[in-house]
Amino acid sequence: MSTVEHTIKLYNSLKGQKEEFKPLHPGYVGMYVCGPTVYSDVHLGNCRTFTSFDIIYRYLMHIGYKVRYVRNITDVGHLTDEGEDRMSKGARVAQLEPMEVAQKYTVGFHDMMRIFNTLPPSIEPRATGHIPEQIKMVQDIMERGYGYERNGSVYFNVRKFDQENPGVYGNLSGRVLDDLLAESREGLKSQGEKDNPVDFAIWMKARSGDIMVWESPWSVGFPGWHLECSAMSTKYLGQTFDIHGGGNDLKFPHHENEIAQNLGSCGCTPANYWLHANMLLLNGKKMSKSDGNTITPMELFTGESPFVTKGYSPMVVKFFMLMAHYRSTLDITDEALQAAEKGFRRLMETNSILQKMDPHTADFDGSESDTDRTILRLIDEAYAGMDDDFNTAIALATLNELGSYVHKLANQQLDHTEVAPWVLERLKTIFNAFIFDIFGLNDEADGGDDGTVDGLMQLILDIRAAARAQKDWGTSDKIRDGLAAVGIAVKDGKEGTNWTKG
Length: 502
Prior knowledge:
- By secondary structure, the protein is an alpha/beta fold.
- The chain has three domains: 9-277, Rossmann fold, CATH 3.40.50.620; 289-438, Isoleucyl-tRNA Synthetase, Domain 1 (Orthogonal Bundle), CATH 1.10.730; 452-501, no CATH class.
- Helices cover 44% and strands 14% of the residues.
- The protein has helices at 44-62, 86-94, 98-115, 131-143, 158-164, 177-180, 225-237, 251-266, 297-302, 314-322, 334-355, 370-387, 392-410, 421-438, 452-469, 473-485; strands spanning 9-12, 17-20, 28-33, 66-71, 147-150, 153-156, 200-205, 221-223, 241-247, 271-277, 280-282, 285-286, 330-332, 488-493, 496-501.
- Helix 8 (251-266) links the parallel strand 9 and strand 10 (271-277).
- Helix 4 (131-143) packs across helix 8 (251-266) and helix 11 crosses helix 14.
- The chain starts with 8 loop residues before the first strand and ends with a strand.
């Protein structure tokens, strides 16, 4: 399908409005999405963000764009509010080396992305593999007068940047610089070293006990968190590229500081369009571990949570996410998941019926009926929904409307002569493409064409095996019992672990 057939509108967070998407190079898209910090298990909010951008990636390719999708892995430790390095803390708690922590949770992240059937990005750079690029960017920022050194650490001079680039800092997040002076969220070093509290670290001098450190012209230390994405996006997509994405929570300070760093290093705006996925709620409230209002992906799958009455398959959870626009908040409730389960099964049943239909060419008189025109209009509306800032909710609702015609044909409520053979073939092709190519769903009823259920079960058993190897018997038993609750028996033996449907 040619890209010229589609005029895409994106909601650009930088402008606060929808704009027509015009890539820098016709037919090509460069997209960077901030990936996970791998010191703990990926949470459900991350899953929504990465699922949303996977669908954007899929759709752009579906309509003919060649996409370079870059999503990083942050495997460099960063200090917490308590002043302890996250990677080091994770290593201490688990009695592992920091890079063992990074590897463990990177593998877990990839496993979860496969469970949700997301495509791997074109490039997945690690922060630890790009220290020279980050040091070079710090040097460039300092040469242009926006960075200063204090006791081996280097800070970005936000005040000077704002004076020379008025209205830029704070534009993405809607923050006012003067209001930020008293509430700097950097937290990587005492405020006393900085010229202004709002300045942020682009290189940190290591303290005694820090493990993940590198040589630099200023000190033995490590790069600032915000710097990593600026350096890696520039390396693989150029100084200016098309789309930068991430979760809504990254607008400030992370993305705001990325823009400042890129402009500070080369005078270039990093991305023309900034897209942000919104948060998940749980029973109407923000998810919070401290408040106990939280649920993990595995708890959703197994049903081992007080917030759900049963386990829901990954594709049902993904379908549930599709039911809302990526910029909207999405409230997880047991009732909503039950409705999503019914909707997902109906969609798959509809497609199964549709794909078995044969066009009745012998009875076709060559005319175009009102039904033909309606089906073609609805197909166009499904695409129009996706062209309008990737609105999966509209596209999904339109597929359901098209599904009503499938069931009318199947139940002989609609005469087969009402649908031209070529219209039926187009409906079959487009319906199938939306479900599998664009939405990235799998038909769990029969394992899918590629043995998805078998692959999913192997991933779950691998996660359980890793828990058993760590002697985390609680997690191991939770997975086993959760699978049992949905009719899958797990058996451990000398030859390994196998599973059977109950």
